[in-house]
User: Which sequence fits this backbone?
């Protein structure tokens, strides 16, 4: 039902924004600015309303508990997350080549490089800030807290699959699925949504900055070197933590990590809202993929 609310809200707000913003600001905003502002409003309203709807049905006692972590530990977790994201960024192009896919996210963002500073700011808000905060609020905080009653593994898988499919095309979905798993595990282990928000902001912010400086090779080179440095630091942190916790890792009993009680959720497959939202997502996914191919 939250997905239906999100989709309907996005379309309604997009239409309303088009009717109100165009006449008022048609001589002030460029086409890129108008499209980016519309995207910001639609994403913000849809994700926020969807999150609030799920929160209203979430039992406080079944939420993922937030652990008390030192600032140093939080920084370490962020760098470990950066390392995992870096691995995904490096290996995914080979999968795209294997399946003959193109990562066409740039074609889906209505942005013209080097237009003006205001457009660059709107791009960062649209690509990095809004998704980093409100997608984490919806896909991790809301969905995982609600589905945690079945088990943390189920919560991670469910949120990752939904996060993947709503990106509406196969190339982006492959990347989003892996990101969703990384963010989901971090939230499941720590219960700290701020950590996944920071990682999401950094990942999407990297893409936004690269888009802004796409015609400045020296700037891109510096950005990539900084990103690589962060990945290397993350790798060192991962190695350090594996070494320190080597005995605990050896004694992990996977059977005790999570117990799925799926029998309680058989009703999902007979629920019209679940079937309707699933059908709508599949149709939109197929249509978007078709348009990208064309």
Assistant:
């Amino acid at each position: 039902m939250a997905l239906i609310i999100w989709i309907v809200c996005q379309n309604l707000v997009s239409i309303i924004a088009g009717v109100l913003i165009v006449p008022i600001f048609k001589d002030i905003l460029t086409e890129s600015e108008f499209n980016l502002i519309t995207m910001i409003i639609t994403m913000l309203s849809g994700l926020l309303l969807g999150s609030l709807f799920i929160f209203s049905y979430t039992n406080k006692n079944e939420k993922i508990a937030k652990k008390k972590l030192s600032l140093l530990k939080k920084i370490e977790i962020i760098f470990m997350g950066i390392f995992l994201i870096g691995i995904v960024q490096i290996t995914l192009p080979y999968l795209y080549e294997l399946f003959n896919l193109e990562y066409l996210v740039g074609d889906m963002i209505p942005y013209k490089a080097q237009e003006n500073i205001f457009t660059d700011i709107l791009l960062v808000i649209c690509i990095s800030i809004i998704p980093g905060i409100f997608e984490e609020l919806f896909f991790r905080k809301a969905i995982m807290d609600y589905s945690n009653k079945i088990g943390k593994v189920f919560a991670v898988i469910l949120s990752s699959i939904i996060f993947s499919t709503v990106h509406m095309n196969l190339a982006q979905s492959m990347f989003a699925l892996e990101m969703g798993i990384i963010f989901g595990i971090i939230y499941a282990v720590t219960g700290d949504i701020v950590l996944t928000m920071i990682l999401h902001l950094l990942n999407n912010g990297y893409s936004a900055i690269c888009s802004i400086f796409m015609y400045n090779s020296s700037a891109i080179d510096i950005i990539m070197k900084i990103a690589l440095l962060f990945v290397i630091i993350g790798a060192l942190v991962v190695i350090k933590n594996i070494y320190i916790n080597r005995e605990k890792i050896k004694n992990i009993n996977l059977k005790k990590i999570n117990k799925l009680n799926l029998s309680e959720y058989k009703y999902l497959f007979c629920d019209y809202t679940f079937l309707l939202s699933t059908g709508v997502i599949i149709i939109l996914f197929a249509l978007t993929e078709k348009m990208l191919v064309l």
